[in-house]
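Consider the tokenized backbone below.
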């Protein structure tokens, strides 16, 4: 008769060695998944480090490691964000960065995250978020058969039943849409674009990277207005805007971002990024000693099969109008042309898109794109147990 396995112990990440184990575990557990793209470790360390990530100016997080026989076998974060409490509701704590090598380990980690959240007087547990909604929200529940695009997460298909077994219910799905961009869009969309081109009131322009700060502020101003009524919307702070701008600037290309103006007023934008994952996959998360040079060289004139549209917005007062749809189709078409001609692109991905965002889903349907990945955000009432139980 075989001996029972040694117990799982869970402890909080407190030291530099703990943090290294926390980061490295994801690479170990996902090494055999052909569709997992190793994130750049420098980015992961920055994400979880106060003083580097300005999220910590309004949020508090704890990171936990599960161990068996002295070996890390799982990890999880638990966080309380003051902006979430303000904009999504009182008592909402969150968890994320979830990795585990077995169901037992996974459930123990979820239990630990809930205990920490209750110790902070939270009554609802929501996740996963790694670590905010602007980072990698949601658990991948559809689309495990192909790799994610830039800034999108990927996790084991085993996690979905474990999370649900622990009492979590899906509260919102985030969708990504896939399309072949080589053949152009249906005739109706082409006519809508052509009509817009004849309208003297409309101007679709590229961004000017030499005025990066001004253009970023303009786009984020439209974004704040356009997304303010969306479920889960958390406004970016000035520090976060500066941080995001610094990270995005090396992968922003003027041909791939459009601003739509009506009567000279900027009213909409569309941001597209080359799929950086295609350029970093072979680096195995390491920028040094040679990865950084390789990446800089590849970013000079990147050729990627896939482009991702992570952000798109139109001022709220135009929501639901024909003009809003027309501007969206024009920006999509102009970027499509440049992506093919200058970057060798054959495929586009739009998202994420909230499952109940009717106008955006209508646009995705009109250009004949199909849902290729679904990320699910879960929620659970944790008010029934005393803090620390």
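A designed sequence for it:
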């Amino acid at each position: 008769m075989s001996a029972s396995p040694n117990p799982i112990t869970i402890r909080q990440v407190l030291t530099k060695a703990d943090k290294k184990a926390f980061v490295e575990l994801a690479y170990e557990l996902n090494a055999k998944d052909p569709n997992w793209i190793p994130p750049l470790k420098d980015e992961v360390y920055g994400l979880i480090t106060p003083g580097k990530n300005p999220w910590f100016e309004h949020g508090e997080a704890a990171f936990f490691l599960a161990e068996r026989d002295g070996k890390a076998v799982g990890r999880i974060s638990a966080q309380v964000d003051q902006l979430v409490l303000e904009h999504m509701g009182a008592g909402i704590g969150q968890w994320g960065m979830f990795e585990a090598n077995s169901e037992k380990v996974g459930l123990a980690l979820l239990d630990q995250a809930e205990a920490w959240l209750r110790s902070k007087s939270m009554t609802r547990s929501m996740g996963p978020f790694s670590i905010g909604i602007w980072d990698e929200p949601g658990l991948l529940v559809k689309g495990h058969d192909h790799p994610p695009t830039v800034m999108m997460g990927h996790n084991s298909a085993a996690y979905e039943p474990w999370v649900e077994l622990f009492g979590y219910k899906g509260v919102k799905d985030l969708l990504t849409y896939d399309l072949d961009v080589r053949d152009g869009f249906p005739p109706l969309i082409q006519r809508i674009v052509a009509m817009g081109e004849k309208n003297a009131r409309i101007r679709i322009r590229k961004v000017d990277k030499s005025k990066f700060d001004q253009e970023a502020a303009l786009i984020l101003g439209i974004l704040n207005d356009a997304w303010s009524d969306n479920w889960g919307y958390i406004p970016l702070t000035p520090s976060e805007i500066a941080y995001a701008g610094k990270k995005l600037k090396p992968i922003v290309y003027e041909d791939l971002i459009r601003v739509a103006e009506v009567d000279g007023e900027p009213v909409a934008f569309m941001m597209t990024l080359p799929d950086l994952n295609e350029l970093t996959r072979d680096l195995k998360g390491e920028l040094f000693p040679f990865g950084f040079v390789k990446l800089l060289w590849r970013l000079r004139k990147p050729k990627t099969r896939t482009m991702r549209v992570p952000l798109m917005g139109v001022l709220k007062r135009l929501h639901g109008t024909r003009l809003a749809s027309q501007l969206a189709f024009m920006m999509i078409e102009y970027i499509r042309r440049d992506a093919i001609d200058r970057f060798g692109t054959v495929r586009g991905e739009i998202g994420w898109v909230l499952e109940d965002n009717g106008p955006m889903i209508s646009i995705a349907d009109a250009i004949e794109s199909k849902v290729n990945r679904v990320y699910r955000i879960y929620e659970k009432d944790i008010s029934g147990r005393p803090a620390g139980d």
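The domain at 9-173+376-381 is CATH 3.40.630.30 (Aminopeptidase).
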